[in-house]
User: Fold this.
Amino acid sequence: MSEHRVGRVLGTEHTTTQEFRVAIDDDAYLQLDDLVLVHTQVPGREELSTYGIVTEVQAAYEGASFESDTHRIAEEGTLPAVKVRSANVAATRVLPEIWVAPDPGEEVFRASGEERKKALYTDEMERPLPIGIGRDGSPVFLDLDFFDGRKGGHMSISGVSGVATKTSYALFFLRMLTARQDISGEAAANLRVLVFNVKGEDLLWLDQKNSRFAKNEQWAADWRALGVEPVPFPQVAFWAPPRRQSGDRVIPDTGSRMEGVNAFCWTPREFINEGLLRFLFTDASDARNQLNFIEERVRAQLKRFAVDVKGEPGAVVLRDPPKGGHASGTLAQPTSDELVIRDLAGLLEILEERLDPEDGEPERRWTGRVQGGTVGAFLRRMQAAVLRLGHLVRAGESRRIDRSRAQVTLVAIQSLHDLAQRFVVGALLDETFEQKERSGQRLPLSVVVLDELNKYAPREGQSPLKDMLIDIAQRGRSLGVLLVGAQQTASRVAPEVMENASIRVVGRLDAAEAQRAEYGWMLPATRARARLLKPGTMVVSQPSIPIPLVVTFPFPPWATRKEEVLDERDPFEGM
Assistant:
């Protein structure tokens, strides 16, 4: 151990079981996040090993009394003084668990090899998954049991937009999860990942090589140090909403990429059967009135009255059902006075007729004794929905998203209105959760990556989408539905969602945001550093380790924009 000595436990201040200081040797150094080890002989007991991590480093002239003495010591040599370097250390582990403070003057060693594993609790992890690279250039590990639902689940990633690389880290983590099947084992078998692309089109190239990657050999070396070959995601299916003005053709609404992208939408029959009407009312303000009550009644009535139309897949008409039953099990040939519902606009036209507050026929009143003003507000919300997401509901062959096509399903919703984005997210989360509830099995796992989580599960207000995300956070891990949520500010996300995230990750933070209670798990020194973190550097907290760790993750081998895609075509082909 002598070759790894870096100093001695400082004796001018009291040491504690939680922290101590180290006087660094002249021929050694300590930097932030270095791991150290101290051996202490406890009277009447065996030798004690205290492991810790460096949280701050200082240097001073011992003997200087005034600030101007610095010049006299360093330049003139007229004052006797000694340069002293020291480091603050936060204890991470004690073996065996005899909680006594390290003795002053004890030798301090740099923890490496097996001692490093003990300092980071890696020796106690059954399935240690690499989640980044430490300051010493070696991998840092995550206890996978606290993500995949065995002991905990979900991951929360916070940080300033653009520089915190939240989505980049989420994708890096998923690449490690899917590629290191030697560690993840059954958790990675048949794993399905649902990724929502909510900003730009950066994620539409996950299956393409990055032309910049080959220019830096260190990036590839970093991936291989983590046990993964640096290649793009091997199985990705891309989906995008249809363009509005595409006529009978269904063309995906993307700009930078068309090849390999599928257009998705729902038929009126699917819209009614799956109760997707509720996801048109996901604004938190809708819960303050009786709109949700009307929506629930209309949703139930649509299921009861909807009948399939002969020769028009996905289209429906509304007819009176058999007494005490539902009409959905029959096929109808629409009469001349029946309106066929082929899209959301057709549904609105029917609802305007059925919900007309001036209509006094009891059998046509779907809203009970609700005031006409509330009914009008409901219809106005429907009219807005027709304008903003009407193209997502259309009759014809089913074009719903098929997650069984590939391991990773990317849904590009960046071109949609905010209401339409919430509708798509709600519909797909509902489908995913319903499938897992029906199976009752935790495996195979289903991972959902959702950016801007504060928009879908805000701290204030209620909505069907927020309720669903809270349900996933609370019950999802037992069903194998795991949420990787990213947001700029964790303080604006529903507490029920944040509290159930076992793994917490932070990139660069705004100074005011870093002081909020949601980041209480961070050390004071780490909070201060969070304002200065560079892209690619994250702070990770997990239940297996009592303090957060700072890690870096390698540059992605997949392209993040069209200009980065590596052109592997033969330049002489076709000549």
About this structure: DSSP finds 15 helices and 21 strands in the chain. The chain has three domains: 2-119, 128-263+403-555, 268-392. Residues 570-575 have pLDDT under 50 and may be disordered. The domain at 2-119 is CATH 2.40.30 (Elongation Factor Tu (Ef-tu); domain 3).
